[in-house]
Here is the input.
Amino acid sequence: MSDFRIFSPKDPGEEVPITFDFTDDLNQGEALTGTPSFSNSVYRGEPDANIAAMSTTPAQIIASGTKVAQFITGGVDGNWYGTKATCQTSSGRTLSVGGILKIIQSFLQKPF
Here is the structure.
């Protein structure tokens, strides 16, 4: 796992795509194949009973087989989540790329 991302924070009410770039891990002529898997866990913060619901659609391979995209929603305000995409390659290898996502409720939505 050579690429690690710190994603831009998102509001708990937003649904946003996050993208994992596998380019640096792929050999020349190799591409991502199959159905990628995606997982997340609470890295820092409160327990999240709905963590499985954060992934709203199946992860997809994009960008000519070099990236995996996943839509994310929800999350607990103030939590940091560890995220990871795992995918097979055309040469039979299994690769994973991880990242960190912070959930922050937008200032205008917070009560004063």
Q: What stands out?
A: The chain has one domain: 4-105. Strands lie at 4-6, 15-21, 32-44, 60-62, 67-73, 80-89, 94-102. The chain has a mean pLDDT of 92.
